[in-house]
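Much of the work behind modern protein science is quiet bookkeeping, done one molecule at a time. Below is the pair of lines this work produces for a single protein:

***
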Amino acid sequence: MQLALNNPTELDALAQQIKCWGRELGFQQIGITAGVTQHDQQRLFNWLAAGYHGEMNYMAQHQAMRCDPAQLLPGTIRIITARMNYLPAAVPFSANPTHAVIARYALGRDYHRVIRKRLKQLAQRIEQQTGAFHYRPLVDSAPVLEKPLAQQAGLGWIGKHTNLINQQAGSWFFLGELYVDLPLPIDPPAVNHCGRCHACLMHCPTAAIIAPYQLDAQRCIAYLTIEHHGAIPESLRSLIGQHIFGCDICQQVCPWNRFAQLTQERDFHPRLQWINADLITLFNWNEPQFLQYTEGTPIRRLGYQRWLRNIAIALGNAPPSLRIWQALIDRLVYPDELVREHIQWALARHNRFTPALY
């Protein structure tokens, strides 16, 4: 017998069942909300007006859809939000200046496919209970204000670094949404617990967190190494360190991550080539090797040229050695001007040294 969607008791029971199904499918938490607030919308408008989105022009597009779920999927009245841990146990935070630094979320399989598949499975379980209904699973695949939605659904609060933080689990998790036309009961929004802490602001190497809850993406290492397509500003290159894809520093220093929970998803376990990855080894990959080793990972989206650009900067920030000097010299013949510019910058960082000194 199908559920009576006008019965509050049955809807409450369904909401609880959805949360149980979510845990069975590998999500650590499920929340339900009706949408974002006017405050959330205004924060988006202010951020865009300040130009803090940089080259991420997609953030300025379809603003009405971001703020009104029903414009993205007609008939939507609830958003089921989900979070899934991704922190792997096997990868320490390496301090070796010749090792590449890659954001933890990118060490395993691309999370988009994993989470979207689970959200679809969750929808199918609901459908068995309710009969056919309209739904759409979303994982960074449409104009959605995922962090404000997750906060409204009780999954966590948006911290001063603008990431979502959960009081019991820190911030090392992915988010996904399931838009539905079911009149489910909603969960209370999460309460902010950042307090007086300013650790993320103090430790951001590029001062991208310009004020509590305000991120200038144009200075953010994650933006510069992933979203930015052109030359990275020279004033920021030395601050990037050995980061070649993303940055986790604001999460590493967040006190709430002492409660972080390790992932149980094998798909998110790090691939061997990323564990203590040597910068020169990665720099010496040809394009077919890059495509082979990054297949099925978020890193593939960089493309080979930006991959070399990022590693050239990391090598320029590494301690001088003959091995680094030679690797940079060997790449000077690369036909892409963007890559050569960053290699030349890296060599200039070491120009007070000559091979004879090594």
